Amino acid sequence: MIIDLATLLEQEQELQFTDFDYESAWELGSLLRHNATKRNASVAIDITLNGHCLFSSAMPDTSIDNIEWIKRKKNVVHRYQHSSWYMGQYYKTKGKNITEASLVDATQFAPYGGSFPLTIKGVDVVGSITVSGLPQYEDHLMVVETLSEFIQRYQK
After folding, report:
1. How far apart are the C-alpha atoms of 139 and 113, rounded to whole Å?
2. 55, 46 in Cβ contact below 8 A?
3. What is the pLDDT of residue 1?
4. What's this protein's family per the entry (predicted)?
């Protein structure tokens, strides 16, 4: 399934914060966990700001593998400043994988859904919000839908 790249870029433009701090990370991470519970989904969650993990949670039925996927997906966001799902779809349109296209180690970079740039309006990408545990597109949707809910509720 290839999703329109313009739509994914639009998500990144719309889902930006006016500010973000430790309390924001706690509230957003808690909302992600709450939304996963409502969906009867088990996920691991990571929110990183400027290289510092501000929120981390692993729900029942997750494993160390989910944490490893989080590391690899957020490496993509930190390097390319786009969601991991966007980068995966971008490479698909080019007919290449991340190793062929960028000469990076695929064991360290995973361009699969679930990691989204943490962007401050007027600043730039300052971190990532990452989920692992569902099929990759569902990981992406969980982050995007929760970010939309959070920003509408707290970032007016």
Report:
1. 6
2. yes
3. 55
4. Belongs to the UPF0303 family.
Count: domains in the chain:
1
Amino acid type, 35: N
Query: What digits encode the pLDDT tens for the residues 44-93?
Result: 999 999 999 999 999 999 999 999 999 999 999 999 999 999 999 999 99
Which residue do the tokens 């990076």 mark? Answer: 104
Rounded Cα distance, 134 and 153, in Å: 25
Strand order of the β-sheet with 115-120 is 52-58, 44-49, 124-132, 115-120
Provide mean pLDDT across the span 137-152.
Answer: 97
Distances (CA, A) of 73 to 24, 115, 128, 150: 21, 6, 9, 22
Are the beta carbons of 116 and 140 closer than 8 angstroms? yes
Residue 143's domain comprises 5-154
Rounded Cα distance between 82 and 9, Å, is: 8
- Predicted TM-score (pTM) of the model is 0.94
CB neighbour list of residue 56: distance below 8 Å, 6 or more residues apart: 29, 44, 45, 46, 47
Rounded-to-integer distance, Cα 139 and Cα 120, Å: 22
